[in-house]
Design brief:
about 180 residues; elongated
Amino acid sequence: MHLYISQNIFVQIAIPLLIFLARAADVSMSAVRIIFVTRGIRTLATIIGFFEMLIWLIGVTQIMQNLNNPINYIAFAAGFSMGTFVGITIEKRIAIGNLAVQFITDKDPGALLTYLRANGYGATIIDARGTIGPVKIIFLIVRRKLLDRILGIIKKFDPDVFYTIGDVITAARLRPVI
């Protein structure tokens, strides 16, 4: 028995599927490449950028060669959406880099600071005045992968804590030159 798949079925089903997969892949790669660019990882960003554009070109070529199938347009857009989702998921998994965590509390942070420092976290504390009176502002630099753990510790210390989180591009200790 010889299996025969008509060219029309291939064009109607396989091409949109390939377009979807290509678009999902190139958008996912774009998200990861941007992360590497912002973290200064040039070599990997360059390599990913090459393959990202190669895959994009293949996907666009298929769209242009099959303009008569509106399903291709939907596959292209759906692939973009899926690529965005996958890219964000990959970013959360690889969690490259550091974050600056600042939190404000009106509680005495002595025991918390002792715990954090004993576990390898540097912390800086500043006395400040908030709308309700005296407060402490604590600054931490943490690896992105450890953010949930640190937030859990901070929230256990003070369930009503106010905190902010920001990306850290560079963190270094300046040593005096003698």
